[in-house]
Amino acid sequence: MSLQVTSLASGSSGNCTVVRSPQGTLLVDCGLALKHVRTGLEELGIAEDQIAGIVVTHEHADHVGTLGIVAGGLKVPVYLNAGTAAMCKKRLVGREIELNVFQNGNAFEVGGILVEPFSIPHDGVDTVAFCFSSGQRRVGVATDFGHVTQLVRQKLLQCHSLVLESNYDRKKLLDSSRDWKLKQRILGQHGHLDNVDTMKLVAELIQHGHIEEICFAHLSEECNDPGLVLDLAQQTLATLKPSSEIKLQIAPRQSLSRTMLL
Asked: Is residue 138 within 8 Å of 209, Cβ to Cβ?
């Protein structure tokens, strides 16, 4: 197999995804305590010296809250774009961490994995999602975006597996006790993807792409439900002709997901 992908945790309390190739391992974002990361790596049988680096999507705390601590503790380089690097300076002050600045749209290789960052619409300064490739196999990790752009479609249509945002149920959000300003942010074009829009994208990707497995991620604890997301996904699959046998799972908020094997 070319790639193995596991979520260590996913949600507003902290995010980190592990992408492994036979040559090395990458972490996508780091909003978890170093102890949590080390425990997850140990459960996966990954030695710290196998970690080739951390790639960063954007500067929000649930994605980079422990970036300096984890990068320093694991002694690994960090890869991020210039806008995100500028926003993360305070988190890295006083730490000897190798920073590598990439340009959105330009692929680079780390640990035997081809990394392709591409822009997505979110309210970070310059948020990206990633496609990761090894050999002929390709996985997309795309969370924290408010609507589906043509670029998102183009990139994810090339993937065999996905870690994909399904953040909220619209009715649950509107009925929640959250203040209206926060609701507007989440609902906006640069907020988060709701279940309905996620499933529309899933249907399109399955019908026109090569999707074999989807891990739904970054579910809101208050305004979503894992069972609801899986039910909607199964309903979506049932409408496709011919019906598609796609592996489905939900990334847990605080524990490891099932590892996707590509």
From this structure: no
Show the domain range for 109: 4-261
Buried b (16+ CB within 10 A) or exposed e, 198-207: bbebbbebbe
pLDDT digit of tens for each residue in the chain (262 aa)?
Answer: 689 999 999 999 999 999 999 999 999 999 999 999 999 999 999 999 999 999 999 999 999 999 999 999 999 999 999 999 999 998 988 888 999 999 999 999 999 999 999 999 999 999 999 999 999 999 999 999 999 999 999 999 999 999 999 999 999 999 999 999 999 999 999 999 999 999 999 999 999 999 999 999 999 999 999 999 999 999 999 998 666 689 999 999 999 999 999 9
CATH for 92: 3.60.15.10
Overall size of the chain counted in residues: 262
Q: How many domains does the chain have?
A: 1
Q: What is the pTM of this model?
A: 0.97
